[in-house]
Amino acid sequence: MIIIILSPFIITACFIGVIVLILTDKLNRAIAALAGAVVTYFVLIFIENFTFAIIVNLLFGTQDDDYVNLHSFILIIAMMIIVLISNEAGLFQFIAVKLIILSHGKPIRLMIIFCIITVVISAVLNNILTVIILIPLTITISRILNIDPTPYILTQAVLVNIGGTIFSISSIPNILITTYAKISFTEFFLNVGLISLIVFGFTLIFFILLYKKELVIPPGGAEILKEFDVWNFVPNKTLLIQSMISFIVLITLLIIIPSSIITPDIIAITIATFLMIISRLNPKEIITKIDLELIFYLIGIFIIAGAMEVTGVTDAIAVIMSNIGGEDILTEILLILWVSAFLSSSIDNIPITRVLIPVIDNMPVSNDPNTKNLTFYSLAIGANWGDNLTPLGDNILVVNIAEQHKRPISFKKFFKLGFITTVYQLTIVSLIFILIFQFAFGMILILTVFLSISIIYLLYKSNPKTIGLKIDKLINKFRALIIR
Predict the structure, then answer these.
(1) Selection from 101, 351, 59 nearest residue 232 by Cα
(2) Angle at 210 between CA 205 and CA 213, to 5 degrees
(3) Degrees (nearest 5) of the Cα angle 133, 135, 141?
């Protein structure tokens, strides 16, 4: 009996230990994950009596699951290569500056364009690279226009995670989820990407209302912007065109070719190889820039998370979550959304996603093919967006870059905006899911939320003497709306 529970206990403790080491910054995340994988190996071999084949299966998958992990590795590496070459060409800087010039120095328009740029670029780049490109560019533009970059930087930091759920290739959690669940590029976009765009619209309105008084550009700023030369940000025009065409071809092929014919990873690696050939860049330089730390980190996480699945840990978590949700599909979806969000707020979303994927697959609600993918969509949104609930993880980089450019942002200000905005975003998604399953109840909730926000807004804006009259008018309008 002791031996039966020993392996799950050690492997779970190993997973928690790796997370703690990464959170406390005591050990590099790749080394921590690999150390955990080594401990896991000894447990599986000497306690569970598996052969080395189990490690190969955990790393790359098996024929039964269509080698899901290997497909994920190939897709991640392929996207790294395409992004690296495009970045060398200045593609993302070109797009950003071109759109900024279209603002004509108008503050609200500039805010809207900055937000759109962030979502567009983060839809194809990882969060870290998006931040590295956009934050210095934002600070440069703000110095040219003589404005405070803080509102723009804060909104960009929040929105990179929205962009991370537009496409199935937008983030590693998406790649892991869609590869495992065999969700197509188009299916993911229609079910998660469109929700992300809807929430982006509401978030944009929120940001404009929040920062409207701060969005002021001094006279003369627009004239300076007109003289801005976008080509100063492009080191290689030919490579820029090649990269742009490659991205267009990649997205097109992912949409029109079913994964049953050619899997997304093979499409991506084909485009990446072709782009490396025609770019005439030194292949050794491109390969050396591939994020090996991330690859080693994934290797460790795949082994540990896979071992948790093999030893029954994920089954136990699935039972606990099912008991909490009561086996109701809507409750389970909302539970997955909020639990994954709050877990990823302090823990890297990659291991959270990797552990929760088999958990969701083992939950009773996943037995229904009509609703199974909804649970995975909920996980994709929660795991990506939860990163903004606290200024930990990738968001620390935003604070560091701003400080390096002598535009410091306080931890408190970042936490306040990130937490409030993320709860606001997750609430909107929750309402969308409620509307899908319980339309009438969802409409009542939406009207209640709208009324509450309106009253809060009146309390914030109004004179105490006129508050009562305005609330009475609002209640009468609401009552008339219900009667109709």
Answers:
(1) 101
(2) 115
(3) 100
Rounded Cα distance, 133 and 408, in Å: 17
- When computed from its CA atoms, the radius of gyration of the chain, rounded to whole angstroms, is 24
Q: What is the mean pLDDT of residues 288-302?
A: 89
Average pLDDT over residues 258-277: 91
Degrees (nearest 5) of the Cα angle 132, 134, 138? Answer: 125
Q: What torsion, rounded to 10 degrees, do the Cα atoms 158, 162, 163, 165 define?
A: 150
User: Which two three-digit tokens encode residue 433?
Assistant: 């899911």
Q: Give yes or no for a contact between 16 and 24, defined as CB atoms under 8 angstroms apart.
A: no
314/310 Cα distance (integer angstroms): 8
- Give the CA count within 13 Å in the CB-facing half-sphere of 325: 25
Q: Write down the pLDDT at residue 429.
A: 93
What the block records as the tokens of 238 is 């030919």
- Token representation of residue 153: 């930087």
Positive/negative CA dihedral, 68, 72, 78, 79: positive
Q: What is residue 473's predicted lDDT score, i.e. its pLDDT?
A: 63
110-121 CB burial, b ≥16 within 10 A, e <16: bbbbbbbbbbbb
Look at the block and give the residue holding tokens 């080394």: 31
Rounded to whole angstroms, how far apart are CA atoms 165 and 192? 7
Each residue's pLDDT tens digit, 94-116: 887 777 777 776 778 888 888 99
Q: Is the pLDDT of residue 223 over 90?
A: no
CA pair distance 4, 262, nearest whole angstrom? 42
| Contact (CB, 8 A) for 332 and 363 | yes
Report long-range pairs for 319-327 (Cβ below 8 Å, ≥24 apart).
321/359, 321/363, 322/363, 322/364, 322/365, 325/363, 325/365, 327/364, 327/365
For 437-483, what is each residue's pLDDT tens digit?
877 777 777 777 666 666 655 555 555 555 555 555 655 655 555 45
User: Dihedral of CA 346/349/353/354: which sign?
Assistant: negative
Alpha-carbon gap, residue 277 to 275, rounded angstroms: 5
